[in-house]
Each structure stands twice: as structure tokens, then as C-alpha cells.
Amino acid sequence: MSASREKKTRQERGADYVSPKQQKALEEQKKAQRSTLIFTVCAVLFVLCVVAMLVWNSGVIQRGAAAVKINGETFTAGDVSFYYNNTRSSFFSGAGITDPGGSMRKQEYEEGKTWFDLIVDNALKAMASTVTAAQAAKDAGLDKSEDYDKEVSDTLESLKTAVSSNGYTVSQYLKNVYGSVMTREVYERNLRTSVLAQLYSESLADVSNYSEAELTAKRDADPERYDTATVRHILVDSEVVAKDILADWENGPKTEDSFAALVADNSTDPGSKDNGGLYEDFARGTMVAEFNDWCFDDARKPGDTGIVQTSYGYHVMYFVRRGLSENWKEMAAEALASEKLAALSEGVEPEQLAGMKYIDR
């Protein structure tokens, strides 16, 4: 259509008339606008996804998730991770078993029960005990003491020094040990709770809190706990050598001093070689089983000798004495304090919440 004809047509059809050319241009413009809108929406969604992924990988969401409720107080997954990983570490080291690594949720220690089940159960018990003791410490005003702040600051400083010597920052170390749900802030919060609980435990164990009658009654209720032994020994790697050393002693004056004189030239035990083979006032159960059983035999008398085989070798033994521990009052006070601490958390059952799924993922 010519320009003059198109002008005439517009005049005939009015101002609202849109020519085919204009209509096509408008359609192209709308199409371009739709494409721009779609691109913009996709770009925004992409950015949001990236941000969400970064936030998720940072552990912010997980560490703040409510995981446990104790006595009406809610604790996050980060808090629980503090107790869980400490319990895991102490469990395997205490049992002499190498931590297999990886998630404990996927490894069974017996049919139908995972290591996670076992460790988290003990971790939550420890958490309940610590939290209740810390609250008692606050009630007693221990959170206002100089010892409290000093213990926390000293621990944090020691941690910083230790990890930096190995080329780590504190944050890197905490994430390696506790996972992405752990930060320095979460660690310090739970460290403060643990320190408070420990201070309260120590305050309860002060001997001055208990009468002589209370301490004596506690001792008499479990006398073996306060029973100690003192011996001298000579450690060698052969039974023949052990018998020869014992025979040499028997051919002499057969005294404690003459036994001690044989130690330096014969014993391979670095812990007692330089003090005449003496182990003094050790408690029942603190020595290897065969050594312990010989020393705490009810028939044992001062001056008794013998040869005991253990995993360390052959021990030529000289029994000095049995007796009541010099620290029996402190031991009794600690036992009484433990009972009081246990009573605090008795019946306290941690309620597991949704955030527990972020522990040991």
C-alpha cells in the first residue's frame, strides 16, 4: 500500500487504526519484552539458587536448627554437635578402638543398632548433666567468678596456639573436628557451659562441704575404693632372668633395701627404675590386671615376693604394704559430689527435635 493510500485509509478508519506494519512492529516489541522478562526471572532465580546453596553449604541453616530441648530450653544442632563429637572422640580413644571415620549413622556396632545411636545417646546424657550443672552454677553465682572467665579465656588461647602451630585457623579446626555446623561462637558458648559445670562439680567436691561422719560413712560403704598398695618391682623380659634375680635377692639379707638395690641394674621399667622400683599408694584397678590381682590379694603380707607375668614382661615383686589412701577424704568428697550431680539431672530426658538430622550427616 502506498503512503498516500495508507494515510487516506487512516483518515477513513479513525485515529485508532493500526496498520499491518505497525501491528507487526508492536508484536515484535511485545515478543522482545517477554524474552527480556523471562531472562530476568531466570537470572534472578539462578542468583537466588546460588545464594541459597552458599548459605546451605556454610551451615548457617543447619547449625541454627532446633535439635534438642532440655528442661524447656532449646539447643541447636551446633550445640549438640559439640557434645556429640566430644563423646565420639572420648569413646573411641577410651575403648582403644580406632574411629572408623565417616558418618556413624551408616555403621552398625551390632545388628540393627548404629554407632550413631550409641554415641548420640551418651552425648545427650552428658549434655543434660552439663546443662543442669551449669544452671546450678549460675544459681550459685559461679558465672561471676574470676576463675570462670580465666578458665574460658585460657582454654580459647590454648586452642588458638595449638591449631595455629599446625597451620590452621580456629574456625578451620572447629569445622574439621565438629563439622560445618560449628563456629567459634557456638564452640565458645558450649565451652562456657562446660566450664561452669566443671566449676560447680569442683565446688561440690570440696571436703569442707561434708562432715567427718559423712566422709567416713562414704568410705565405709565401699572400703575397697579407698584401699591402696605399695610395692617394689623389677621388670624383665624373661622368666629365667626373673627367677635368677629373685634367687640373688633370697641369697642376700632379704630386705626391702636389698631388693631396691637390684632395680637399677636389672629393671627395664622407665617409670620406676630410678626410685628402687617403687609404686606407692596406688588404688585398686589402676595397674594391669595380673599386677593388680597379686598386690590386692587378701592373703598378701609385707615382705612377700613373687614373679608376675603381664603383657609388659615378667615382674619380680616385693610387697611393701596395704593401707588406706592418704587422700581418702578427698576421694569420699568426690564420690558424694558425683551423687549430687547425678541427682540434678535424674529424670531429665532430652527431647530430640528436627534439627537432629544435621548431626553427623
How much β-strand is present in the residues?
Answer: 5-15%
> How much helicity do the residues have?
55-70%
| Secondary-structure content class | alpha+beta
**What is the number of E strands?**
9
Provide the gyration radius in Å.
37 Å
The SSE string, one letter per element, is HHHEEHEEHHHHHEHHEHEEHE
**Count of alpha/pi helices:** 13
| Lateral arrangement of strands in the main beta sheet | 6-5-8-7
What is the general shape?
A: elongated
**What is the arithmetic mean of pLDDT?**
87
Low-confidence stretches: 40-58
Largest sheet: 4 strands, antiparallel
N→C terminal distance: 73 Å
Polypeptide structure, described:
Helix content is 57%, strand content 14%. It has 361 residues and is an alpha+beta fold. A hairpin with a 2-residue loop joins strand 7 and strand 8. The strands form 3 sheets. Strands 6-5-8-7 form a 4-stranded antiparallel sheet. A 3-stranded antiparallel sheet has the order 2-1-9. It has a two-stranded antiparallel ribbon with strand order 3-4. The chain is elongated and about 130 Å long.
What's the quick description here?
This protein is of the alpha+beta class and 361 residues long. It contains 13 helices and nine strands.
